[in-house]
């Protein structure tokens, strides 16, 4: 897929290496889309065929500096499982570790603080479902009350209760976390959430009343979107197309 990565280290399985390549690309795409928060925020991916282990970014590196090799491996409590010279961001372990430990259907989690998403997270209403992208999120969004920087063990159970069986968690007064069963679908879900937030903000800045969509239309849109994500390859095509576009403009992500 796309540009060639550095040579696979002998101690890493083919399945893990393929995951590392996709996750490293995902970090570069988040930067390419302009959704980074300098060295902060995090994307994690559960390791295949391993219980309770996931990959995450080395804290302190820019997203453009992340490669398949320098991603670090941690357990659900944030303990590092390899001999990397880097550590992870402690603020990410409670969020990612809790979701990976509790949700077998979520293999990738992305957390961002973009202006549009953070603005929606500040509003009591949260996301509305009256634009094309917002309608696709109907019934898929949970809300978690802000408790400060996410560092502490005792918040995990409350975050999980706020998420429930949904795939989008609005962290009130903070940002967003989204999760799906692979990297491609998680990125596509994040893109949908970002577009919903951007359009909601633009519409809110205009005069006049919004056209409200019936709940039945929201249910229909959300159900159809979830069916398409599960049964088609368009999330994979979206991911690969965005990587091609990024590398055409920037050159190979790593050599």
UniProtKB/TrEMBL annotation:
Residues 21-201 form the Class II aldolase/adducin N-terminal domain. Belongs to the aldolase class II family. This is Class II aldolase/adducin family protein. It comes from Vibrio porteresiae DSM 19223.
């Amino acid at each position: 897929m796309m540009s060639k990565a550095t040579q696979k280290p002998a101690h890493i399985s083919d399945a893990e290496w393929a995951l590392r390549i996709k996750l490293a690309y995902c970090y570069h795409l988040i930067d390419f889309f302009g959704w980074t928060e300098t060295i902060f925020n995090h994307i994690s991916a559960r390791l295949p065929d391993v219980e309770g282990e996931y990959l995450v970014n080395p804290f302190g590196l820019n997203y453009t500096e992340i490669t398949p090799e320098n991603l670090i491996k941690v357990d659900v409590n944030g303990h590092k499982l390899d001999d990397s010279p880097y550590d992870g961001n402690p603020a990410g372990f409670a969020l990612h570790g809790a979701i990976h430990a509790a949700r077998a259907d979520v293999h990738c989690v992305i957390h961002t603080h973009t202006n549009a998403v953070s603005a929606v997270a500040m509003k009591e209403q949260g996301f509305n479902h009256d634009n094309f992208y917002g309608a696709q999120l109907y019934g898929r969004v949970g809300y978690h009350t802000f408790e400060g920087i996410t560092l502490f063990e005792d918040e995990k159970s409350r975050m999980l209760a706020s998420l429930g069986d949904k795939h989008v968690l609005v962290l009130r007064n903070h940002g967003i976390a989204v999760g799906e069963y692979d990297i491609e679908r998680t990125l596509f879900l994040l893109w949908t959430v970002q577009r919903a937030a951007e359009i909601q903000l633009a519409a809110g800045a205009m005069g006049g009343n919004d056209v409200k969509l019936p709940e039945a239309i929201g249910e229909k849109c959300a159900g159809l979107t979830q069916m398409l994500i599960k049964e088609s390859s368009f999330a994979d095509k979206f991911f690969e197309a965005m990587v091609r576009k990024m590398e055409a403009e920037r050159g190979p992500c790593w050599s």
